[in-house]
Write a structure and sequence with these properties.
The complex is a heterodimer of chains A (about 325) and B (about 325).
Chain A (H helix, E strand, L loop, with lengths): L6 H26 L14 H9 L6 E5 L3 H6 L4 H8 L23 E5 L5 H15 L5 E6 L6 H12 L4 E7 L28 E5 L3 H17 L4 E6 L17 H10 L1 H11 L4 H24 L15
Parallel strand pairs in A: 1-2, 1-3, 3-4, 4-6, 5-6
Helix pairs in contact in A: 1-2, 1-9, 1-10, 2-7, 4-10
Chain B lengths: L1 H14 L4 E4 L15 H9 E3 L4 H13 L4 E4 L10 H14 L8 E7 L14 H5 L5 E3 L4 H14 L3 E6 L22 E4 L4 E5 L4 H13 L4 E5 L2 E3 L3 H11 L2 E8 L4 H13 L8 E5 L9 H5 L3 H12 L1
Parallel strand pairs in B: 1-2, 1-3, 3-4, 4-6, 5-6, 8-9, 8-11, 11-12
Antiparallel strand pairs in B: 5-10, 7-9
Helix pairs in contact in B: 1-6, 3-4, 7-11, 8-9
The chains are: A alpha/beta (about 325), B alpha/beta (about 325).
């Protein structure tokens, strides 16, 4: 298991959280400006999970995530330039400009993609973990999904088989309290999604997903367990969703009170408090924030300046 | 044919130690229809993985293995149950290489037995190949005999793309000469099962034999049918089909799937697009009636047979 993170590491997390936040803000702004169509599903307010979870991994470990997966891609090491270019459907995008916001991928970084069908990637992640087990390569797979996915059959089926075959997989549920419009409490009749683990014979853990230190500690344990060959863990990270499900859908919070919750739960100021107690100054915060913003502004400029994929490439990549 | 498929898979598993089989009842039991006989004993539980009943996830696991460089062969016990696995096949495997910009390969083969005419009723008797042909990114293979099944299975495994390999259970016991060689049969190349000059019968899988029977009978009346065994529906050998139609000027399409929006519609339209000027009569379609498949004697009223093919040929000659 990795030891407790030092200050340098924590500052890196802080920077990554801002990198993701600015990325999402740029994504929303670009979408509203009409720089790309389709939709985009921001993970604003959920940044701590992606960052802290990725920090518990080795570079060769693999991650699969959902359409709300920009943050996971950044945390796993993809360049915001190629990610923003993918959102804008440009040739320089990580998926060659044909996947878009919901189909990001970086095989070289161990980021095996985001998926636009709820829970469909969970068995796929399990297959990757099974491949790791068969190759005895000591690599661990982490699959991120939302609360909604835990109502899908693919989730339950995979839990069952994953425990049965003790594959090196960590299930990370980001419970942000909402499907598009339906609050979790109207869809799931138990307090914690991690309780779902009980009937399947794997550890189920719930943590405050907006505290990166708690997420990291729980992840480190789950990853170590998987790497030891002791099988999967279901980790529920409670978080809150930014006010909307996606940039196009409705699904606003039901009331003001709910809407305020995400602002109060915002992991970035919360983490700042922790760092401040460790002696980090306002100047340091500002410098890090400015750097994260610059990275993203450059990424957006890069994406805008990039070309669309050439028409003659539209048939590429159907078959190997 | 079952033995030929077994041989092909065994051969490829010996060649490539990364190939893994997933499914239900595929271990010592040897698969629902015994296609995997002896594979568990030879390759062990790591590679011949008997799993719980969950078609949807099993196919998804197959996708994950495949994209990790471990070609996966997933057995669906009856083709009808492929509906349960359709997301993994149609939304994931078929599209993943494309939407990830070519970063992954998905060498996944889903084996799906069609079990019709055995009286098992509406949920165990369907031929759903047309649904799968409709998904860009999938190969759809439907052999009619042992030799083709072996060569096409080897080709599909080496091709390394998402493939649905549809096996007709009534043909499992069928014997044709199968060479020892491991020569793959190119995908997208039809086989001329019988040469003729008057009418082309384009068919595949379970209707090849009845079509040959009809052709034999018609030959007695001086009508020479050319029977095409299409073998792979995606890719479809449109060129081979049109070449035959340009020669005969008449076309009958025959399959066991229901008629409406069946593969026959696509095949017929392909002939219209490529050989319209040569056609001397309207194209005829022979197919199952548009009904849920009943059990017992009623099923015989629904599935087409050699007499239906014969009548269709005579219609084109009238």
């Amino acid at each position: 298991m990795k030891s407790a993170p030092d200050l340098k590491t924590l500052l890196h997390w802080y920077e990554q959280m801002w990198t993701i936040r600015f990325f999402e803000e740029n994504a929303i702004a670009s979408f509203r400006l009409g720089l790309f169509g389709g939709s985009t599903h921001p993970c604003i307010c959920q940044e701590a999970i992606a960052v802290a979870a990725a920090a518990a991994l080795e570079p060769a470990d693999q991650v699969l995530a959902t359409y709300r997966g920009h943050g996971h891609a950044i945390a796993k090491g993809l360049d915001p330039k190629n990610l923003m270019a993918e959102l804008l459907c440009k040739d320089t995008g990580c998926s060659g400009g044909r996947g878009g916001s919901m189909h990001l991928c970086g095989v070289d970084q161990g980021f095996l993609g985001t998926n636009a069908v709820v829970a469909a990637h969970i068995p796929i992640a399990a297959g990757v973990a099974l491949a790791n087990q068969l190759k005895r390569n000591q690599q661990v797979v982490v699959v991120f999904f939302g609360d909604g996915a835990t109502c899908e059959g693919a989730f339950f089926e995979t839990l069952n088989m994953a425990v049965l075959w003790k594959i090196p997989l960590v299930f990370v549920c980001e419970n942000n309290g909402y499907a598009i419009s339906v609050p979790t409490r109207a869809a799931i009749p138990i307090e914690n999604i991690s309780q779902r683990a009980d009937g399947f014979g794997l550890p189920g853990v719930t943590v405050d997903g907006n505290d990166p230190l708690l997420v990291h500690a729980a992840m480190a344990e789950a990853v170590a367990r998987a790497r030891r060959g002791d099988g999967p863990t279901l980790l529920e990270c409670k978080t809150v969703r930014w006010e909307r499900h996606s940039a196009i859908s409705a699904g606003k919070y039901a009331n003001e009170e709910e809407a305020m919750k995400w602002k109060q739960a915002d992991p970035i100021p919360r983490f700042e408090k922790v760092l401040r107690e460790k002696g980090v100054t306002d100047d340091q915060f500002s410098a890090i924030r400015a750097k994260a913003k610059q990275v993203n502004d450059e990424a957006l400029a890069f994406a805008i300046a990039s070309e669309s994929p050439k028409a003659e490439t539209v048939e590429n990549f159907v078959f190997a | 044919m079952a033995e030929a498929i077994n041989e092909a898979i065994r051969h490829e598993m010996r060649r490539d130690p990364n190939i893994v089989l997933l499914g239900q009842d595929i271990g010592a039991y040897g698969g629902t229809f015994g296609v995997y006989k002896g594979l568990f004993e030879e390759f062990g539980p790591d590679r011949v993985r008997d799993g719980p009943l969950c078609e949807a996830s099993t196919a998804g696991w197959g996708v994950g293995l495949a994209m990790s460089g471990m070609p996966a062969i997933v057995e669906i016990e009856f083709m009808d149950f492929i509906t349960l696995a359709s997301d993994a096949i149609c939304n994931q495997a078929a599209k993943m290489r494309y939407f990830f910009g070519g970063q992954v390969r998905v060498p996944l083969i889903v084996r799906a037995p069609v079990v019709n005419r055995l009286g098992l009723g509406a949920q165990h008797s369907q031929s759903l190949e047309a649904w799968l042909m409709h998904i860009p990114g999938l190969r759809v293979i439907m052999p009619s005999n042992a030799a083709d099944a072996k060569g096409l299975m080897i080709a599909a495994i080496r091709d390394g793309n998402p493939t649905v390999f549809i096996e007709h259970v009534r043909l499992y016991a069928g014997k044709t000469e199968v060479g020892e060689a491991d020569d793959p049969i190119p995908l997208g190349k039809l086989r001329v099962a019988r040469e003729g000059k008057d009418v082309t019968i384009a068919t595949y899988s379970g209707m090849v034999r009845p079509s040959l029977d009809a052709a034999k009978k018609l030959a007695g009346d001086g009508i020479e049918c050319e029977v095409l065994d299409l073998r792979t529906l995606a890719p479809l050998d449109r060129e081979g089909l049109c070449a035959s139609v340009r020669k005969t000027g008449r076309l009958v399409v025959a399959h066991e799937a229901v008629k409406t929006a069946g593969a026959g519609a696509e095949i017929a339209q392909s002939a219209l697009e490529g050989a319209f000027d040569y056609l001397q009569a309207p194209i005829q379609r022979v197919a199952a009636r548009d009904l849920p498949i009943p059990t017992g004697k009623l099923q015989d009223l629904v599935f087409p047979n050699a007499a239906d093919v014969e009548n269709a040929v005579r219609t084109t000659m009238a």
